[in-house]
Amino acid sequence: MERKGDLFMYIGLFLIVLLAFLLIFRDKITGIAGMEQDNLFAVIEPKIPDIGSQQNTSSICPFQSQIEYFYYSKPPDSEKRNNKFGIYIYAEVGEYFELAQNLVNSNGGDWGYVLIPFNIKDKSYDKWLNVFSKLSEKHLIPIIQLHTVNTDDYKENTYEAAEFLNKFVWPIKQRYISVYNEPNDAAFWFGKVDPKEYSEVLNYTIKAFKKENSDFFMLNGAFNISAGNTSTTMDAVDFMLKMEDKVDGIFNKLDGWASHSYPQPNFSGNPDAEGRFSIRAYKYELDTLKRIFGINKDMPVFITETGWAHSEGDVYNPSYLSSGKVAENIKIAYEKYWLKDDRVVAVTPFTIWYRAPYDHFSWVREDFVPYASFNAIKSLKKKAGNPEKLETARITSVGCE
To answer: Where are the transmembrane segments (predicted)?
Structure first.
């Protein structure tokens, strides 16, 4: 009996000392706990309620602190919806985010897409913090397209880019990355056509981003599918074969497929045309992946560039269609083909605006006045997308005297 009494005494003394420690160092403990949270968490200042009117002060717990945290909510399968509408924009112009929201989230839409180019050496934290804040605020899903890698030092460039982009709170769980642009065209790959080099870069980029965060969703750099074998371009299928020779199974490492499905010839083709020179070029590419490279998995498609060139611009170009006809064609493309194909996840036409000579692809003028295509697509009925989106919650801790 004496041993039991001693045990209870020691336990009681321990609890008294522990309680005293917690009361004395309560603020420091709370501060440390807050500082140890990662970049998804923030500690809100403690709130002390008014206790002047309380009578039983011995039971009052006046000290409160709240931890605000973020998480991604996954909708049940029955509530999953995808808004395929998108547009190609640029991080440097804030007005483009507003225009994109008005375009892709109009008429019942929510959580449409934007493609945003990203210079792999860009470390402007405040700039990109603002970008991701705008994306969340305006319910826009980003597809980040990498560009301007140093091929002599691509591993370090890639590692740093993956680390940098992982610092930000993305608006949805999936972090879409397109690994460069039309690498089978020397104009977009440092003045040369080098499928083996691109295959090595793509392979390393997939590994580096996945190692940094498994939520990165990796897409190829879309090919110039209409290009032939010339001194500055290579047929896309020939390019892919040489890529596969360098890195076995390279295309099976991708999470999805990026496609530049342009209406050829002269960016003025018939919207009802089929094949590699049409707005459904992605079907030709998927068939090639299956038939030649043995890719049997369902590859979600992201049409990261498409669209008709219009004659209006800084300099009128009569070889292109009128902006009114372009609007008719883009509407047909969405309603008859892209929206009805479940393989297509997003369509981000090129471009919201670009300087001449590419201003003929612009959806608005330099002063943000829209062309006919903008208004035509804005008027189309859209789905309210429901992705695994960012949510905010709070935990309250209470300290008592």
So the answer is: 7-25
Which of 308, 375, 303 has the alpha carbon at shortest distance from 344?
303
Q: Which helix (H) or strand (E) holds 397?
A: strand 389-399
The predicted-structure confidence for 282-309, as pLDDT tens digits, reads as follows 999 999 999 999 999 999 999 999 999 9
Which token pair is 53?
A: 């009117």
Domains of the chain and CATH, by start: 2-73+392-399 (no CATH), 81-378 (3.20.20.80)
- Cα separation, 97 vs 383, whole angstroms: 19
DSSP state of 310: B
Tell me the pTM: 0.84
- Cα(253)–Cα(219) distance, integer angstroms: 9
Q: Which two tokens stand for residue 77?
A: 């399968």
Q: What is residue 177's three-state secondary structure?
A: strand
Helix ranges (H only) for 250-369 are 281-291, 323-332
Q: In terms of C-beta density within 10 A (0-12 exposed, 13-18 middle, 19 or more buried), how is residue 310 classed?
A: buried
CA atoms within 13 A on the CB side of 42: 7
Amino acid at 94: G
**Beta strand pairing call for 112-119 and 216-219:** unpaired
Q: Distance (Å, rounded) from C-alpha 1 to C-alpha 75? A: 59
For 114, which DSSP code? E
* CA dihedral over 181, 183, 186, 190, signed as positive or negative: positive
Alpha-carbon span 325 to 24, nearest angstrom = 75
Is the model's pLDDT at 57 over the cut of 60? no
Cis peptide before 151 (omega within 30 of 0): no
